[in-house]
Design goal:
505 residues; five-stranded antiparallel sheet; 19% strand; single chain; 2 domains
């Protein structure tokens, strides 16, 4: 493996091993056999007539990521049988780039619905300018082998009540029993990766912040670190510590809102109100510190746009919030009506979690002890104690407990960061090298988030790939729905903390 760490300590320049398509399966088997895990595969065009695949994987105890590149001259062997989580990534590449994967177990469209009419794959350099993707009026309903006349079909969505994001869920059921469940996502696919093309790296920070509204810091941080890795840019110590503070403040309000929303699904109305009130208090702290409730317009290439002044007040406010949260958490964990709906609901087997790519609190609730902050430190996480919460039950209660533990750990980590926060500059200049590339990452509130960036010869972005945690967790989620019941569905979905915007991009 020839991937080297950049001096920024926030990402890696992608000096990838070149593999022939015929060698991919053996390489993947060897990586998985060592306890490693594939993270993603994506495609890009180094030249208009030349397509390249990039594979990213992790190996326990190895800080650099395994990165391979492959230049196909025809269909590429699918790795879904070796690493099932790559199935969706391969289907995405087929939809958007037109590259086929041989022996794929699910060759159906994913991002482009079967009703979409496209003149060429959307990322094809020859895609006609100004031509929109059109859709036929109807989509086909999948046939499920072995079902009989007693089985009913409920297509729920894509327009749903309240302010829920657009998605269609197909339930095959008898009475209250769900025999099979299939989510149809990507109704609001915004082509965010395509929107990065041709932008200057500075301008694209604003776009990264808006890929997923509740993950603005995580997305901007992973993106900036990918750019900094490509530019070999060293971020000043004060900026690195403040980046940790911002990332943990984002984790805090996300987890508090999660607990309130989970109470909504179990009809614990007082718990819902209290959880969302605590989330509101956290957002008000965000606004007081940065001017933005969602912590936007602070991160930039090389550090921060402007300095922040958290000392003298933020530590006390966090402690006050922690005390209120501790009372709330005790009430949640002693309310039988709430616990009865969570315990044993939506169990995710550890092997399924690993194989299908579950990440963040979801896989840690199934016993998978993985966290990028500790395993692949970035920003100032390598200088701070990162306590990783793990549960083994794999049910909705375990997923809630992981987030509850992470709230305490996050506040403790922020207090430590405030104590050690150094003085000094908050930004370094990043000089982009034309034709360079880089890989950046962050452990978002929902799990692992990767940005891979490639520059053209003018120093503008040629390709940006986003590996989002919800894209991974939506793939694992259906395995917890099959053979369950309708009454538990909303609780199970809420316990995963999924976003559709983060998945669809």
């Amino acid at each position: 493996m020839t991937v080297t760490q950049s001096a920024s300590e926030t990402g890696f320049r992608q000096r990838a091993d070149k593999l022939h398509p015929a060698a991919l399966k053996d390489a993947a088997r060897e990586l998985v056999g060592r306890g490693g895990r594939m993270q993603m595969v994506y495609a890009w065009y180094p030249e208009p007539s030349r397509i390249e695949l990039r594979y990213v994987g992790t190996v326990p105890g190895q800080v650099p990521f395994a990165v391979w590149r492959c230049e196909p001259d025809g269909p590429v062997p699918s790795l879904a049988a070796v690493a099932p989580l790559l199935s969706w990534y391969e289907r995405e590449v087929t939809d958007l780039f037109g590259l086929e994967f041989s022996e794929h177990p699910q060759p159906q469209r994913l991002v482009l619905h079967d009703s979409a009419i496209v003149p060429r794959p959307p990322f094809d350099p020859d895609y006609p300018t100004g031509v929109e993707i059109r859709a036929q009026n109807q989509q086909s309903i999948p046939e499920i082998a072995g079902v009989n006349g007693d089985v009913q079909l409920l297509p729920f969505g894509p327009i749903r009540a309240d302010v829920l994001e657009s998605a269609e869920f197909l339930f095959f059921y008898i009475g209250e029993a769900i025999l099979h469940y299939q989510p149809r996502l990507f109704y609001k696919h915004r082509g965010m990766e395509k929107r990065f093309e041709g932008l200057t790296p500075e301008r694209a920070v604003v776009l990264a912040e808006r890929v997923s509204g509740v993950g603005s810091v995580a997305h901007a941080l992973a993106y900036c670190q990918a750019i900094e890795a490509a530019a070999d840019c060293v971020v000043p110590p004060r900026a690195r510590f403040l980046r940790v503070l911002l990332a943990e403040m984002e984790r805090l309000y996300n987890h508090l809102y999660y607990l309130g929303h989970l109470c909504h699904t179990t009809t614990l109305k007082v718990g819902e109100a209290q959880g969302k009130l605590l989330a509101e208090r956290a957002k008000q702290l965000n606004a007081r510190l940065t001017g933005s409730r969602f912590l936007r317009s602070i991160l930039t290439l090389g550090g921060l746009r402007r300095d922040l002044s958290p000392k003298g007040w933020l530590g006390g406010e966090l402690e006050s919030l922690r005390e209120s949260y501790a009372v709330y958490a005790r009430h949640l964990e002693t309310t039988d009506s709430h616990l009865d709906r969570l315990i044993t609901t939506g169990k995710l087997d550890p092997k399924v979690a690993f194989d299908q790519g579950a990440t963040g609190p979801v896989d840690r609730a199934s016993g998978l002890d993985r966290d990028l902050r500790r395993d692949h430190p970035y920003a100032a996480y390598g200088e701070l104690p990162v306590n990783v919460a793990v549960r083994t039950e794999g049910d909705a209660h375990a997923r809630a407990q992981v987030r509850m533990d992470e709230i305490d750990a996050s506040i403790a980590l922020m207090q430590r960061a405030l104590l050690l926060l150094p003085d000094g500059p908050i930004k370094s200049e990043c000089k982009i090298v034309p034709g360079s590339d880089g890989l950046g990452w962050s452990e978002s509130p929902r799990g692992t988030l990767f940005y891979a960036v490639h520059f053209d010869q003018t120093g503008r972005l040629a390709r940006v790939k986003i590996k989002s945690p919800s894209f991974s967790n939506w793939r694992a989620f259906p395995f917890t729905v099959h053979e369950t019941n309708m009454m538990d569905y909303a609780i199970n979905e809420a316990s995963f903390g999924l976003t559709i915007a983060g998945c669809d991009r």
